[in-house]
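call fold(seq) -> C-alpha cells
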Amino acid sequence: MSEIPAKATESEDPSDGAMNQAAEAAAAGDAMWQSSPPGSIYDYIRVASFSISPGGLVDQWSLRAEQLFGIPAARAVGMDPIEAFIDPDLRERGQRKMAEILDGREWTGVVPFRMPDKPDGGRGEEGLAEVYVMPTRTAEGDKAAVCIVVDVRTLRSIETDLAASQAIFGQSPFGFLLIDTDLRVRRANERFASTFGGTPDDHRGRGVHDYLPRGEAERVAATLRRVLETGQSITDMHVTGHLPGSEERRHWSVNLYRVHSGSGRPIGIAWLGTDITSRRAAAREAAAARRNLALLNEAGARIGNSLDLETTARELLDVVVPGFCDLATVDLYQGLLTGDETPPGLTDGSAELRRVAFASAVSGAPFAGSGEPVEVGAVHHFPFNSPCADALRTARPRAVPPEEGGLVQSTLAVPMVAHDTVVGLAQFARAKGSEPFGDRDRDLAVELAARAAVCIDNARLYRREHERALILQRSLLPPGDPEASGLDIACRYLPGNAATEVGGDWFDVIELPGHRTALVVGDVMGRGLRAAVAMGELRTAVRTLALLDLEPAEVLSALDEIARGLGTPGGVQQATRTARQPRDADLSEVYLATCVYAVYDSVTRRCTFANAGHLPPVLVEPGEPALMLDVPPGMPLGVGGEPFEEVEVELPEGALLALYTDGLVESRDHPLDEGLQAFVGALTDPSRPLEDVCDHVLNTLDTHHGEDDIALLMARVQGLPAESVGDWTLPREPRSVGRAREYARGQLLSWDLEPLVDTTELLVSELATNALRYGEGEIRLRLLLDRTLVCEVWDSGLVQPRRRRARDTDEGGRGLQLVGLLSAAWGSRRTPRGKTVWFELPLPGGEAGLTDPAEALLSLF
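ret:
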C-alpha cells in the first residue's frame, strides 16, 4: 500500500476538528483507492480527492490529485483552488460557488481546469473535471469542504470503450468466452450460447470438460494453463468435439490470449472460436482433389514404361499402394497372357484369369477380395454371382462386401477396360481404420485402371507383333550350323528382348560356285515388323544377286537400288523407279541399311570385301593381335548415287575373320570407339574352337543385350589343300578335248573317285568342246575336291552359254542338257578375262545318287 502523504501544514489550533476529519476522510479515500482490488473501476478512471479549509484554501492533497493535476502536495496545500485551477473568466463565479459551499451547500458540476504552466514555458494542460463538493465541519465546528474530482474525458472514454466492448462481445459472429484464472467461464456471448444451447448466463462457471471429449478437453485445458502462465497467445488451435445431442463431429479454430487488469495483473483468458467444420470439409475435398491429381500424374509417369504385361500391372500397384489404398491385386485374362489374338472381353465373367500382381501396405493374411486367397501366378476364375464376375461381365466397378473378421473394410473391384475391351480386373482395398471408398475414389480407381489397361493392351499388341517379327526374323536367318568350303563357321544372333522392338539385323553364309563362299552381315535401320520384313527382302535379294555370281561391289549397287524401293507402295518392284528419283527427293519412305559383303575363295584364300556404311570386319592372323580391316566404309544402302569400292585381302591359313552388327559394340553407356576396341581386345586367342570364341566375346563385352539386336559371324580360314586341286591349261586345238578327259580321269583316280570317272569324262568333254567351239583363247580345266566335286572350264570368251532344247532332227545342241541331267548343279559366271562354266557332282556315298550316263543320253532322244 502506498504511503498516504502527510499534511503539508499542521493546524496549530487543536480545536480544528472538522478539518482533521475531512483530512482523515480524504486519506481514508486514498487508502481505499490504494487497496482496491485489481480490476476495479478505479484502475481505469482518473479520480482524485482533496479538502478545503474554512478559509477556502487547500489543506489536504491526495496522491491521485497529484497524478491528475500534476501538482505535488507540498505545492498544492495552501493554494486557492479557484485561483489555481479555474479559468480567469470563471473565477468570479467560482468564488461565489465556493462561498455557498462553505456556507453548507453541496455542489456538483463540471468545471474546466488548467494545469500549471510547464517549467519550459509551455502552457499547462487543459481539462474538464466533474467535481463533487461535500460541506463538512472541523472539530471546532468551522465550515470546510471535501472535494472529489473525476476527469470527465477519461470517464467518457471509458463509457465509450465499455459500450464498444459490449457491442463487440455481444454482437460478434464468433464464439466469445472470458475464462477466469480457475479455467471457468466467467462470461459467454450470444453466439457461443446459440451454438451450445441456453443463454449466456447458463454457461457461467462451466469448464472445457463440459464441452469436449475427455482427451480433447485435457489437451485444451493444458493449453489454457500454459497461456495463463506464460502470456503467450495461441492462434488457430484446432479443437474437435460434438454439439449437444448430436454425434456430428465439429471442428473449431480457437484463438487464445491472456487478459490483464488496468494494473497489469492477469485476470483470465479470452477465447475466440470459429466453426471451421465446413471449411475443413472443403479443405479435405480440395486436398483430395490435389492428391488425386498428383496420383494421376504419377500414374501417367510410372505406368506403361515397360512393354511387359506383368511389369505394367506391378507399376499400377506401385502407384496406388499406399497412396490410394492399403492392398491391391491385378488379374489378367489367361488368354491374353498366352498370346490369343483377342482377349475374352465382355464375357460372363467366369473366364480364367491369372493373378499377375499383388501389393500390400499392411501385415496380415493374403488379400482374398472375392473368394479364397489367390497367390501371384495362380490361374483362377470368379464365381458367376460374385461382385468381381459382375464387374467383368458389365465392365462397371463394383463394391465387394468385406469378410467378417477380416482386415479389410472396403474393397472396389474395377474392370480394366482398354478400347472397349475388358482385359482384366483390379481390386483396391482399404484396411480397417482407413476411410472407406467414396464416389470420388471410385472415379479415380476407374481412371487408374483404365490407364493401366491401355498400357497392358498396348503391351499385348506389341508382344504379338514382336513375336511375329521375331519368328519372321529367325525364319530368314541361316540354319544354326552353316557350312562353307574352306571355312569353319560359327555365328550368334541375339534378338532384342521384350522391352525393345525387333531390329533388322541379319547375317548369311552363301555357297558360291568354285568352292567360294559369300559372307554377309547387315542391319536395317529401324525396328519392328516393318524393319524385319525389309531385312527379309534385302536378304533374299542378296542371295539372288550372289547366285548371279556378281562382284561384291556390283551386289551392293544392286542392293542400294532395291533398298530405295522398299518404302514405296510397289516394294521391290519400284526399286528401279525409285533409283531414278533425283538425289534431293524425299527419303522419308526410304529404308536405310548397312551391309558388308565378302566373297572368299577357298582355293586362293583370297577374300574380296565391299562395304555399305557398315562397321569394318576384324581380322586375327595367327600370332598377331586383332585388327580392323581398312575397308572403305561406303554409303548405307538406300542413299543411292554413290559407287562402292572393293578391297581384296589374302587370308593366311588359320586366320580368324569376324563380321558383326553395331548391337555388339554400341551402347548408351559408352562411345562406339570404346566398344570397338573392347571387341578387338576380346579376340585374344583365335586358336580356340570358334564356338568358344563366340561365347567368350559375348561374355566379355558389355553388350547390354536387349538394347539392340546382335549378329556375330566368325569364320576361320581353312584353305583348300593343294592336293585337292587339279589345274591345267590347254591350247585352243581339237586334241585338247581328249587331253582334258585324260587329265580328269587321272585326277579322279588319284582321289579314289572311280565311280565318278565316266560321268566326269563325259561332262568335261562337253564343256571343253563348247569352249573350243564357241569360246576364245586358251582352255583351262580345274577340278576341286571338297564336300563335292567341282569341275570348271575357263576360256576368254564373254558370251555366256545358253541352254536350249534340241529338236529330234538336230545333230547337236544337247550338251548343256546332258550337263544338267548328270550334274547336281551347273552354271557359268564371268571372270575378269572371260567366263567359267562349271558343274558339280556329289561324292560317292552321299545322299544324292549318281545318274547313269547311258540313261541320260537315251533320255535326250
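Residues 439-476 form the longest helix (38 residues).
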